[in-house]
Amino acid sequence: MSELTDSVHTYLATAAASGFAGLQVTMLNHWQGHENLLWRVRCEETEAVAKLFMDAGQVRGRRQLDGHQLFAQRGLAPTPLWFDRYPEGLARQLLVYNWVSGEPPDVSDPGQLAELARAAAQVHASDPEELRRFSPRPFNLDYYWRMIAGGVTTIEQWLPASDCPAMAGLFTRMADRAGVLVGNALPLWQGAPPAPVHGDLKLENAVMALGTALLVDWELFGLGDAALEVAAFLFASQSEIDEESQETWLDAYLSHVDDAAMNQRISVYRQLLPLEHLSFLLNGARNLSAAERNSDEFRASAPFLAETLLATLTQSSIALDIPVMAGDPVLQQETRALFNL
Predict the structure, then answer these.
(1) Is residue 236 part of a domain?
(2) Segment (H or E) for 80
(3) Distance between CA atoms of 307 and 161, rounded to whole angstroms?
(4) 223 forms bridges with which residues in the sheet?
(5) Range(s) of the domain holding residue 200
(6) Does residue 147 sit within a domain?
(7) pLDDT digits (tens, 9 = 90+) for 228-245
(8) Do residues 178 and 272 touch, judged by C-beta distance below 8 A?
(9) Which residue from 22, 78, 100, 116 has the highest number of Cβ atoms inside 10 Å of its Cβ?
(10) 168 & 315 share domain
(11) Would the pTM count as exceeding 0.85?
């Protein structure tokens, strides 16, 4: 990392495309994101973030730059400085934007949660004509269901052959219920065109600065489904925001939205997301090789994986209104068997 830090410093201080060329640049610290590396730097009176994309940087970098350019002027994103597709001396694309001093949202503060809801709603209410590309996220329910249906079908075929008859039966009931839900709900998306979405709306991608919520990491920015983004945010934050506060956040969000069907569309995704996560976990178990199952790392993590899978199984059944006996011993036994316990 030190060698790469030196290369980034050299670029910032000397490259013709750098906005800091010829000036004194100090590297303050660095950290690793998801498929990117970041440095906090100082150049004279300016503090900035230099973000090096490790995968799909051309597209991700342009998406993030678009998000910054559109929303920095509205106080929702850091101000971009420049994006270099072919940075001198570096093998990957580089985006530089102003550092924002702030703190993560305090989920115990209703005011901060309401401010985050307002920020999300403001992004979603922006003019779609201002955007140049789609987010890689699904842009409506039909697209979303087609994306996850393949994984659901694979699990339906795999579970009966894995000596998990109770789980197989329950999963099939959930898949059938989800299919009916989607079919009945599709009309809610008629007349609901794709909207601007952040693409990765999470607590970790929000900063509270002087009472205002700013969003960072706009790599997946573009046109998408605002209802899915809201539902996914609530699903991802359920371990940090309690149920009552989640509903308060949702009410705050909806108060900024002029769309009578938005809450219904969000509700549909909230019923489906646990099934998507369950399919992801089961596909992970299905794809484990014999060597992976025999590794010390797997043995150490197997109890946690089994517990997570069982909790997600229960959550999905509740979301789809399929009753399951709490602590069902057969489901517990089958879940543990999937992880060699």
Answers:
(1) yes
(2) strand 80-84
(3) 22
(4) 134, 196
(5) 110-135+192-254
(6) yes
(7) 999 999 999 999 999 999
(8) yes
(9) 116
(10) yes
(11) yes
Matching residue, tokens 């929000």 = 206
Q: Which of 249, 221, 216, 233 is nearest to 104 (CA)?
A: 216
Contact indicator for 23, 13 with CB cutoff of 8 Å: yes
Q: Which helix (H) or strand (E) holds 196?
A: strand 195-197
Q: What would the pLDDT profile of 143-200 be if each residue is shown by its tens digit?
A: 999 999 999 999 999 999 888 899 999 999 999 999 999 999 999 999 889 999 999 9
Asked if 183 and 196 sit in the same domain, the reply is no
- Express each pLDDT in 264-282 by its tens digit: 999 999 999 999 999 999 9
CB burial string 107-145: b at 16+ within 10 A, e below: beeeebbbbbbbbbbbbbebeeeebeebbbbbbbbeebb
Residue 42 exposed, middle or buried by CB count within 10 Å (0-12, 13-18, 19+) = middle
Q: Distance between CA atoms of 322 and 330, rounded to whole angstroms? A: 17
> What's the residue count for the chain?
341
Residue 212 CA to residue 206 CA, distance in Å, equals 10
Closest C-alpha among 269, 204, 233 to residue 117: 233
Determine phi and psi for 59, rounding to 5 degrees: -80, -50
When divided into structural domains, the chain yields a total of 3
Q: Do 66 and 8 have their domain in common?
A: yes
Within-domain flag for 104: no
